[in-house]
Specification:
Strand order of the largest sheet: 1-2
Order of helices and strands: EEHHH
Largest sheet: 2 strands, antiparallel
Helix content: 25-40%
Structural class: mainly alpha
Strand content: 5-15%
Distance between the termini: 21 Å
Shape: elongated
């Protein structure tokens, strides 16, 4: 969705989906080895969000967006997730 900011500049709004409930943080030891690409196995909600953010950063230019000017916001648990992701090195 493309909207306009108060300064009448275009803004691209992208929404993402991610796992919730038991599917968001269930840990399945059998799926992960010591050499796992994802050492934080069990935080699937955050892994979904990080994957979406990396996709956005990589592809936003195709939608006339700036990969170096991405703002995150959320409501309720989504807002807390933004704070949590701020502490993840290399999240965006």
């Amino acid at each position: 969705m493309i909207a306009h900011s108060p300064a009448n500049q275009p803004v691209i709004i992208i929404t993402i989906n991610f796992r919730l409930g038991v599917l968001a943080d269930m840990y399945l030891k059998e799926l992960f080895e010591e050499k796992s690409e994802w050492p934080t196995a069990g935080y699937y909600m955050y892994l979904d969000m990080l994957s979406a953010l990396r996709w956005i950063k990589k592809n936003i230019h195709d939608y006339r967006g700036d990969p170096d000017n991405i703002a995150l916001f959320g409501e309720s648990a989504g807002g807390l997730s933004v704070i949590d992701l701020g502490g993840v090195k290399g999240s965006v």
